[in-house]
Amino acid sequence: MRSFRPNRYTLAGLAMLGAPLTAEAQSVTAGPAFDVSVTVYRDPNRNEGGFDLDYLGGFALITETRRVVLQPGEQTLRFEGVADGIEPVSAIVTGLASGVIEKNRDAKLLSPSALVEAAAGQEGRVDLMRTDPKTGVTTRTTATIRAGENGVVLETSEGIEALRCSGLSETVSFEESASGLSSTPTLSIRTRVTEPVEAVIQLSYLARGFDWSADYVADRIPNTGNLNLGAWITLANGNGVSFENARVQIVAGKLNRESGQVEPIDIGGPIFAQCWPRGSTSDYEPGYFFAKGGDDFDRVVVTGMRMEAMAMAPPPPAPAAMASEVIQEELGDLKLYRVPDRVSVLSRQAKQVRMFDRADVPVTRLFEVNFTSNYNTNFTAAPLILRTTNDKENNLGLPLPQGRVQMFELVGEGAEQRRLLAGQTTLRDLALDEETEFEFNGGPDIQARQIVETRSLSPERSLPLAPVLRAVPGVNAGSRVLQEINRIEISNARPYPVDVDVRLYMQGDAQMLRADAPYGQKDGRPIFQLTVPANDTLVVRYQTVRQTR
Amino acid sequence: MRSSIVAAVSGAALSLALLAPATFAQQGQQLAITIYNDNLALVQDKRDIEIASGRQRLEFPGVSGEIRPETVSLSATGLTIVEQNFDFDLLTPAKLMEKAVGTTITIIRVNPATGAEVRERAEVLATNNGVVLKIGNRIEVLRDDGLPVRVIFDKVPENLRSKPTLSVTVNGDRRGNRPVTLNYLTGGLGWSADYVALFDDTTSKLDVQGWVTLTNSSGTTYDNADTTLVAGSPLQADQYRQQQYRPQPPRPQMPQAGTETGDRERLGDFYLYPLPERTTIANMQTKQVSFLDVHGVPAEHGYEFRNYWLGTLEDPQSAKTVYRFNTGSAEGLGDQLPAGILRFYIRDKQGDPQFIGESRIDHTPMGSTLSLATGDAFDVKVKPVVEKRERAGVRRWRTSMKYTVTNATPREVKVTLQQDGLWGDTRIESESLASTRPNADMAEWVVTVPANGSTEVTAVFDSAY
Fold first, then answer.
1. Are residues B142 and B164 in the same domain?
2. What pTM does this model have?
3. Number of folded domains in chain A?
4. Assembly ipTM
């Protein structure tokens, strides 16, 4: 790889006029990474769903092992081909005995406007090239760029001219290595060595533009209703850099991230932006006589950093074929998944690796309804819940990182049998032994509503102080007692009995007085655990009491 | 910057009428830059300048693009300053034509069929939405027919610059070369600290490296500058900070402020971090220089969870992973820490450091205790539940809380559990574990949770709310 040299070298002939040149560090490019490790972290602010390939909000820790050869003296060691999403402040270089004087990351990349900017004001550093429309002969004139930011102004021996405002084909050509800029994001360090060194060094840094998600696939086993649960890790690299044959790890859990914006890479604005006003006496645009003239500005089209055509992550493939599973390890208070074999994480690629497969997970199948006490509601379909515990007994007992769940069921018999998507839901981060609930859309067969049947208010108690207390703002002396009877109706259109949990939010300071079905308490709220007979409606009444004015 | 030297010198050689005797030959330019935290820097620019006697204009191209012209001061012996100007009318083709109104330019018509050129002089009459020219006795619109026409201007008009330029008009007492010092404040330069903290799980020791990170977006490259960083900002405290109603401040990152004095150089009340060597700060560059490297600092790994008043969680929530350590000289980092971001790493099974989260710290005096949260603990969770809330009198409530702290790790953990929002005269009637009150609004329990187990804490609060 060629190294770029600062342009002050090319200025050497003129240096006698300027300041004495400082002893400049030699520029050395580190060898390409021969061992790469990529650890992918999910977007800490993304919910359980999938990610958008056009906007990958996660990040990765990338560790590259490279070989360097350093000659004695002060050296600028350049690492080319780092990820474009690099957070330069996070870069760590280890393995260099001589130590690091400083680390630099230049955000300015080689671009047409960067070339113009670098050449601006430098005497006779560009050639103005003009092609004769008749003969096709190109003449070169030595010129100086006087200004370039908003339209290029050139100075030649003839005078001052603006570039590409004349309608002729004209352009400027630059000296080689005019800008000293590199084409890819480059990190460099300054070091000083006393004797020749051949070292193997490690460069690690955080880079944006990665993400991963856990995609669970649950297959209901026809007879038992138990689940075969498998999971994929879908990871994606939105960077323009590929990591070939890399060790890949994935970290689950939520990390603190502080850094806001990463300094954007300066790919340069378009050049040749403006000429003088080009209004004409006619409403029609004058026709181009021969070649395209200067009035249609050459705009540098910057291709997007991400592919636009890529849609959402592809649905997880069926777990039919065997896949080698990732190895789960502990990492502090986080979970690390190690991909057992080296894989390539290519640029703008989404890739899937198998997280685990667990067969025959027993689940309790029930419906759950939530009501706020003392409110009338209409019939609403109840969500279905498949409940289990994340432990060995239930053939689980492993960390389940948050992600999407797709549930499949077999429909039909024999050759007609098909595997169809029966539901979709999400899981939060689940540790060992946690209660695990998959909540699905339950279909229309189980409906529930609540009716407030009666309200009765007790007569005012004749407390002597009550009228006084009630006059104090904010005081609810509660001299009267309000009793309400609610009726809950649950209908079941299935040919078999179903379990339904009815959970109540108590309105205000209402307390449960009595009910005609046994109730308990869960998470501070009353709960009825009911069984609704096949093709029938179950009615439960409960009475609450609260104090009112 | 160097480019402008060349431009100036050869510009003069070509007698390009770049206006007045703008003198800006520079020799032995010496830059000293002091960078503050809040996007502010003081630039001291020393140059040897050839000065004539009498009134003259000195130009200083290559000063920061974000210079604050009102802060410029020029000092040299035998110079009297007449006025200072900061010209920011930039040279563009449109401006060039606009400034040419009323003057004469050369146009060259190129015959597209033959390539033959016809040269004419033209007066620019107007540039309003099209260029109107007077050629001889005729009036024409430039390139109205779409045919190629080259326009050549005789000179670049006054005040049009390729970059914003600072100029100072001075009176010199004698002719001769002398050192001139230019001081100014500029935006676009800033710095913060970045720390790499590697935590060893088995020994509970922390290795910390500190880097100062400079950023330059001022549009100018500073060559070979003597650079000093000031930890803090002499600017008046943030005026835009809004008074927010915060019943409880966010979790304290610095439970104890340090009282040790460092041996670093100071500027008033701020510490100085001079870079050991002169350095070139290129435009659009991020530069890092090491300032701290300590190994084996004892650190404590813990968990924290704060519940809000009447908070019930149906899904247990992860406790925060917290690392605590000291910045003192005895058992700590032994330095005052400039504000920045601390990134924590921990080694995985194969011994490779992996990132586990980061935390922003403020300027921290030496000897402080830092308690930094890095993220959520996957395996340590808390589920607070309001079990019961009932009236305990006319204006009193009785609230029964149950906190279930679960631990899915194979080792015992201690979790700092906090109940916030104990406003008024809230009392704890009864509790299953003795609490402390770090302040009147909060109760705190240190809950020991066995390996792969859970611990329940219950408390009954008597409150007015």
1. no
2. 0.80
3. 3
4. 0.79
